[in-house]
């Protein structure tokens, strides 16, 4: 049902490190109405509810009744048990990545969303990065992709490995850029500070011959978030930390170089990412527009499932390789 002329009543479930920002952004959107907050920690929930001047609901079922849509920002283990009843009740659902803990849970949510005819969007935020959206304009047929996502250790995340925690962002992005099925996955991972892998490296080979090498770490000294994409006659480099990306292109035979080009026969242009609106605001705003306009989301439940499936494959391969050393 199209609801173009009304504000979407939405509740936030989970207002921890990330959820509190969801609540702030949704409360500021003119097309949304934040109707309440739920959190298993009453003190934290009441604090954020007071800050946003909305009710706090100790029982998630009570908040669900007030909503047209729900925003689930809880730990992954709670995603399915909150999203499934919401979908059965005909509510639109935004759910942070990863979509669920298991593929079976993801399949059920996708089926429920289809039956109810509602929006199910997964929070893979890099798809809403302004530079990523620009990259797609010059991307033709990637042949090699290199990704580094490194972060210092945070004791906040202990129950999952770095692949599902961090690398899944880049797995989802690469799956959206390479229009070919995955043929092979090789991976290594090492537990350093937790019982799960804290640093991992994966090599993904696609059926069309494209290869992606990814490294994710949460035990780095300095943060780094960079992706480099190579295709015929073009090299694209995106640095999230510097908030800029560069495109290097081979000059045509009769094309003259420009002042400042890095090497003979190659042109370069550097663009700074749009900082007027952060990616999370863009992402949540797009979810509300999808609900209002009854259109498919940029990151569907099926997209979230594909990213989860590949993350699980990488994790299992890394564990197999670690077992060989024992």
Task: Give a written overview of the molecule.
The chain is of the alpha/beta class and about 325 residues long. It is built from 9 helices and 14 strands. It has 2 domains: about 10-120, 3-Layer(aba) Sandwich (Rossmann fold), CATH 3.40.50.720; about 125-275 and about 310-325, Dihydrodipicolinate Reductase, domain 2, CATH 3.30.360. About 35% of the residues lie in helices and about 25% in strands. An 8-stranded mixed β-sheet has the order 8-9-10-7-11-12-13-14. A 6-stranded parallel β-sheet has the order 3-2-1-4-5-6, sandwiched between helices. A hairpin with a 4-residue loop joins strand 12 and strand 13. The model has no long low-confidence stretch (mean pLDDT about 90).
